[in-house]
User: What shape does this take?
Amino acid sequence: MAPATSSGPAVAAGSIAQMLVGLAVVLALLGGIAWLLKRYSGLRGTGSGLIRIVGGAAVGQRERIVVVEVGGTWLLVGVAPGQVRTLHTMPRIESAGAGSPGKTGAAALAESGFATWLRRLSENRPHE
Assistant: This one.
């Protein structure tokens, strides 16, 4: 009697390992691209169009306050998961005063200290 042989081609262990390594490389590449997109597509103003993000600050793990320019008006907006609320409306800041002419609104706001500005704003606002 003749010995029994398998009728289908045998898959070499090397080709399976090569396939698994290729799959791991593709998945790592997709994960890296997703991480880069998430990291670098945050809140940034484009500088063109009707709405522009001037600046922002994190006030919690998932909460932010953002200064948004719409036309010639700045809006201070609180952003939380599932909620966006306008906190204050003001005209666009052209300069930080006579000591620094020619500063744009964002530079003036950064120079004067966003935290100081926000503290003064909250002190002047009537509490509910």
User: Anything to note?
Assistant: Residues 96-103 have pLDDT under 50 and may be disordered.
